[in-house]
Amino acid sequence: MVTLAEAWQEGSDRLHQAGVESPRLDSEVLLRHVLGKGRAEFFRDLGEPLAAGVLERFRTLVARRVQGTPVAYLTGHKEFFGLDFKVTPAVLIPRPETEILVERALQVAADLVAAKGELRILDLGTGSGAIAVTLAVGLPTVRLVATDCSPAALEVAAANAKRHGVRERIAFRLGDLWGALREEDVIPGHPFDIIVSNPPYIPAGELEQLPADVKHEPPAALDGGPDGLAFYRRLATGIGPRLAPRGWVLLEVGAGQAPAVCRLLMGAGLTPLSPVKDLAGIERVVQATNRALDRGNKEC
Fold it and tell me: Angle at which helices 52-66 and 4-17 pack, to 10 degrees?
């Protein structure tokens, strides 16, 4: 019989031959998924034989990975900010870059909670709910509204909120951008203190050049229009009445897009600050506020 170690190597070799970026890790994750084992158990049992049915299921997953299906869609899970999230082909797979957006939102929210107490956050285009759920977990007194134009995505997001015990503090809304909000969401005298979003920002002309695995993700979550800025323009035109005094807007952007998005927010009456860079030095999160800035803050 084939041992766990032999199956792992077999999967690694096949993925390597197919040009998969991280063949050994992907093979491990898929095999652990089929076995239902954590890493410690996995390495402990490397010499154990695999049942024929287990090996067959593993080989099927490896074949699908060779065809470009992302590992997260094959396992149905993705870790984000230390939390486990359900993912399906209906949602964009959470990425490490978006953790930078969440980290900054948590910092801003902590300051606002200290100053204001009650806080409301809006997550536009929530997808899997990774941003909204992570913020709700990290901010136990905050209430959120999370929108998406996909019913299937909202179903996944709601399941993730329930999984992490924050479902009662997140109102999920179906619809396109501002049109998703209900009358009770736009509370007179108490708009949103923070508006966050990881919108589609890939220029339409670049979609065909994306890696094979990214092409499996929902086009609506990727396509940012001709120049990648379509969502940001629409957001800027309606943000004014939805943002509370001393409020903040935090948006993930693509490489090279920060200056243009800063200008759009400035045109909406906000003051952009220096964007937050990711580990590669790319300006990844545009931040803007409608409050008066201290001299120590550097504008965009």
Answer: 20
